[in-house]
Amino acid sequence: MVGYLLRRLGASVLMIVLVSMLIFVVLRLLPGDPTITRFGQQEGIDPRTIAAMRAQLGLNDPIIVQYWHWVTGIVVHGDLGRSYFSQFAVGTLIAQRLGPTLELSVAGLFLAVVFAVVLAVLPTILRGRWWSRLVGTYTTIGLSAPPFVFGIVFVALFSVKLGWLPDRGYVSPSADLGGNLRLLVLPAVTLGLALSAPLIRYLRASLADVETSSFVRTATGKGITRSSVVFGHVLPNGLLPALTSLGVSVGAVLGGAVVVEYVFAWPGLGSLIVDSVFKRDYAVLQSTVLLLATVFVLVNLLVDILYGVLDPRLRVSGDRR
Amino acid sequence: MTEPLLRISELRIGVRTANAVRPLVEGVDLAIEPGQRAALVGESGSGKTLTALSVMRLNPPPTLVTGGRIELASKDIATATERDMVGLRGAEMAMIYQDPLSSLNPVRTVGHQLVEAIRAHTTIRARAAKRRAVDLLGEVGVPDPVTRIDDYPHQFSGGMRQRVMIAMAVSCSPSLLIADEPTTALDVTTQARILDLLVDLSDQRGMAVLFITHDLAIASGFCERINVMRHGKLVEHGKMGTVLAAPAHPYTRTLLDAVITLDAQPRTAAVEPSDADGPLVEARDVVRTFGRSVRAVDGVSLSIPRGGTFGLVGESGSGKSTLAGLLLGLDRPESGSVRFAGTELATLSREALRARRRHMQVVLQDPIGSLNRRKTVAQIVALPLAVHDRMSRARRRDRVAELLDLVRLPKALLGRYPRELSGGQCQRVNIARAIALKPDFLVLDEAVSAVDVVIQAQILDLLGDLQDELGLTYLFVSHDLAVVRYMAPTIAVMYRGRIVEQGDRADIFRNPAHEYTRQLIDAIPAVELDGERVRR
Amino acid sequence: MTASSPPVLLEEPPALPEDSGPGLLRRYLTRPPVIAALVVIGVLVIMAVIAPWVLHSPTALDVPDRFAPPSGAHPFGTDELGRDLLSRVAYAGRLSLGIAFGATVFAMVLGTVWGMAAAARGGWVDEVLMRIAEAGMAIPIILFALVFVAAFGADLVAMTLITGFLMSFLTARIARSAVLSELKSEYVHGLTAVGVPRMRILFGEVLPNTLPSLLAQSSLNLATSVMLEATLSFVGLGVQPPAASWGTMLQNGYSHLYESIWYPLMPALVIVLAIAALNTLGSELQVVLHRSAS
User: Fold this and answer.
1) pLDDT attached to residue A131
2) Are B459 and B448 spatial neighbours (Cβ–Cβ below 8 Å)?
3) Are A108 and A254 in contact (CB under 8 A)?
4) What is the mean pLDDT of residues A207-217?
5) How many CB atoms lie under 10 A from the CB of residue B521?
6) Which of B10, B492, C132, C185 has the highest local Cβ count within 10 Å?
7) Among C residues 85-104, those touching chain B with beta carbons less than 8 Å apart
């Protein structure tokens, strides 16, 4: 078990290093000059100023040296770099945006899990064809609509037509909790719906798989009631592999949040990323994306560990004979 | 005659397809008296498992009972409510299955699953139920039941798992136990011990058993009555001794003839093997290790004369397939030497080795899986010709037709795909491909293990004929000692990577030197003609 | 042990012919969801091709009639300049579907070579290639797309290649596992024993067998790239005006939501339909393949 944990941890660290290299190399491949973002396309900038700027940003160093500075900056000093555009520390920019993104992601993920568990487990318990079809249709639509399409439909319906909820914006919960929650409803539901569809599909496949397995037949053959079969045998085995898909969902949350934040003018990390792409602000972009990727990798590590704890086949090894 | 415990009459089962119900079982009648052991014998696809499952009403959708009656102690199963069934299952009848690993919940301890079964039909407290569970585990022969009760299914060996399943099945003293191929997935030596346990339990408790099997020999030693099924119909039933002494239906006759027992007259090759120009295949002190410490093949030496048949027997995991791969040069040993026709295989370049493959071929266990599913029979058989021989299209076509003749397959099958063939036909295609290049040496790696017993007999006949006609040298690998004895005059017994015994078959059977060989010989079931008493 | 019985008589009946490889296509194409999906895709493609000749010109202005709701004259309504939305949606399909198709072909070729090399070589080659693919999938695809767009811009070729490259990670993994499961199967073992050269086994036997599952993945890739294009264009980082794709229409529509709720809803509807149809084609193929394998 300890060996397994160490191996998984090592693999995760390696993954993060690889991801950081990928981001860094891709962003350095471009022919343009990042100092342009600073000075714009203005005429008459002294070439010496640009040269000084380049030297200051370390852009004249070989790419490996630049990468080394970036990584050691993060690991040793906790320094995520400095925005090319605004000269703010990237760490400060991220800190400002972290709260709203966390709020939206947690709310969205929570709703997604609730929707998914209810909608996937219900047909198993109720065993109705009708239920099963309804959930199937919901899943098909959910899988086909990009997250922001739900958002547009909701805004069209609840803000424009009915005027029940505000269409965009953000206030800090410490300033106005009620207002914050009212603004949270639409983006959170949008995210939750979009994320629940793949979760439901995965859960249903997993439950259907378990439903036809031999050990469920054995359990039924013992003469225990249907509900004992479902809660004692089908669900524990069917929900276990769904943990993995939950880990994948976290990635989808992070990706989905980018666009959903854009739709609802929610000032989170997603908007920060989109902004920095517009401004070609690579310093901000590379650190923010790396942060999100790291979160994703770590969540999946956590899921794996949890899986190892919950599944006796991984927890207790060995055929004692 | 006493009132039967289970009576099945005119049972029909079908499977729901898109727009119809396709019949799978068409009119089965069967009766078991209390305490009686009855066999339901048939090949794969005969409908025997489906019949058994429908007694428990556990037949998986989309299969459904379309007609007939099933009565257990005069209660009609067909009209029983689901709540009635919950009361009957486990208490009145219980079932054990072929694969005990997948039949046990992997995330619950065996104790939990046993207690659940016990408490389903009794009102005793959890602590008492757990004590009962420990007793039961002890009764079915699980050593150290007090600690093992908290283990998970994956921590048990195959045989022990089946014992757990049996403990669970008998926990509420049902009057009927349905055993669906309970020993098929186990090694032969384990198989015999599980059957002994079932006999004891059935005798002590007066529990009737419906024993489903494809193996007539096992059925004959275990059951008093026999029912033979084929293609969804019951073709014969009666007292075991009577039926086996004089089968009324030709299918039962064929089934009986196909069983290879220790009394069977072994096959004799038409041509004597010759060692004149040295052995064709020779291995010396061959070692092959996997991972850090698993010695799959641990210092094996053997030699096979040209034209001979060398039998290699051992249970799964004994290293016999690894050894076969080494002899074929598909894998290289860490140490030791493998020579084919005098040439050391390890010294050959990859190309030279590949060219040499035309002289040594293999037929594997899974008849259908060994064939590319998207190629026709003609393409499959022609491939080795295309790779090794430059011949015209027309000549290749002629040769393929010739090969199909050799393996007794009609030419109408040339354009078919593997899935459109039966298992036996597929294995014939595999043989045709293997002999296409007129090899000297043919490895038969469990080549008849995955087919039904009647087909097995036919394939063995074919292999014998081919050896006589083409002068082939065989390495016959199998877990089934009776079959190996039938085919091979020289036998090696492999156990945990080593050959523990090797020599002439008559000597080995008369005087087994190794304990494991003795166990293997004892485990071979004999067809019992006197069905009253169980002899093992 | 006798050989008295005629050999073929006692063979068990063969499996039904419809379970075989060649029957696969027919069984796939006769499934109702597949037919529906093909109709949807067909209509979208045909409309994209013939739109300018049959429908209103997508550039014909009719300013007084702007933001019109759906009507007989304009089934999808009109936009902020009074242009016909149906013909604009149809026309925008050229870009959206074109990018998706190009990206999918690129992903299929790159991913197959990638995955096959990993599976066939094994060892450290496999390890390195698959670690790279995993790292690529460790970043949510939309985030990664943003990084690439930042680096390379968003002209059509770049969008196509970026989308294709990002999908090739998953495609490579699918291709690898498909090739690997073939390589592990007994028939490949048999072919090796027969002495068929490795390359011939790989390209002559294994690759054709993995094609159906790669096609299924490609169909899902098409759906992903339609979604990705729409997303990037919607946030303004994809197709740049005046070129029109479904994503840019959505963006324009969303900014005029208070003038006409139909304006964003119509392209949204088309996007959902297209993705649903493509997803269906892919997952139905997977279902058919799965059934024929078991």
Assistant:
1) 80
2) yes
3) no
4) 89
5) 17
6) B492
7) none
Cα–Cα distance list, A247 to A269, B33, B211, B273, B515 (Å): 20, 56, 46, 64, 53
C22: helix, strand or coil: coil
B contact set with A (CB within 8 A):
56, 58, 60, 82, 85-91, 94-95, 97, 99, 102-109, 113, 116-117, 120-121, 148, 151-152, 154-157, 160, 165, 168, 172
ipTM over 0.85: no
Per the CB < 8 Å rule, is A320 touching B156? Answer: yes
What 8-state DSSP symbol labels residue A222?
A: T
Sort strands B176-180 and B93-96 into parallel, antiparallel or unpaired: parallel
Instruction: Give A43's pLDDT tier (boundaries 50, 70, 90).
Output: low
**Cβ within 8 Å, pair C234-A160:** no
Residues in chain C: 294
| Chain A from 236 to 295: CB within 8 A of any B CB | 236-237, 240
What is the C-alpha to C-alpha distance for residues B170 and B197, in angstroms, rounded to an integer?
12
Q: Give pTM, 2 decimals.
A: 0.81
Q: Which residue from A249, A260, A91, A80 is spatially nearest to A187, judged by alpha carbons?
A: A260
Residue listed under structure tokens 């294995």: B427
Q: For B73-96, what is the mean pLDDT?
A: 89
Across the range B163-167, mean pLDDT stands at 93
Name which of B331, B399, B333 is nearest B362 in CA terms: B331
Residues B232, B46 contacting (CB under 8 angstroms)? yes
Which of A156, A242, A233 shows the shortest CA–CA distance to A201? A242
User: Distance between CA B8 and CA B384 in Å, rounded?
Assistant: 52
Distance from CA of A306 to the nearest CA of B (A): 14
Helices (H) and strands (E) in chain A, counts: 15, 0
> How is B383-426 classified by DSSP, letter by letter?
HHHHHH----HHHHHHHHHHHHHHTT--GGGGG--GGGS-HHHH
Give me the mean pLDDT over the A94-111 stretch. Answer: 89
- Tell me the per-residue pLDDT of B415-464, one tens digit each, with 9 for 90 and over: 888 888 888 899 999 999 999 999 999 999 999 888 888 889 999 999 99
- DSSP run (H or E) holding B458: helix B453-470
Which of B144-153, B370-379, C144-153 is predicted least confidently? Answer: C144-153
Measured CA to CA, the distance from residue C123 to residue C153 in angstroms comes to 37
User: What average pLDDT does this structure show over C149-161?
Assistant: 83
Q: What pLDDT band is residue A45 in, cutting at 50, 70 and 90?
A: low
Return left, alpha or beta for C266; rule: phi > 0 is left, psi -120 to 50 is alpha, else beta.
alpha
Contacts of B180 (CB under 8 A, 6+ apart): B49, B52, B53, B95, B96, B97, B98, B212
Q: How many CA atoms lie within 13 A of C134 on its CB side?
A: 18
